[in-house]
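Please check this.
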Amino acid sequence: MSFAMPSLRVYRASDEFAREALARIGRGLSLALGAILVLVGLGIEFLPLPLHLPGMAVVVIGLMLVLRNSFKARRRFVQIQRSHPRMVAPVRRLLRREPEVVQVFWQAYLRSERLMLPKRFRFAVRVRRYFKVRARTSA
């Protein structure tokens, strides 16, 4: 004969309190790590070295952590998005589940080329058109 032993595990209010406290501590640590990553990424962005892409990646990872763990930050991000949609759109595209990294950086490159170079020195649009025409003729 086999006897089933009753479970010694009983629901206790203190267990729920401990679980909630650990969740809050974890959320706070994730929030702090995200804020540190954002600051480090912004620091990398302003270095005179060509580290724009790694700096932007660190900022996006930090923003992901901050926005997932802070309701106030998420609310503020939505407010900024509503008031400045064109400025926040690239960041939103990078925060998606499947980010469009190449397209975002291509658009950023085109914008910066348009801002910095006179029309006769811009070459990115011409290169893209060249490859588009070449792809149409070969297909």
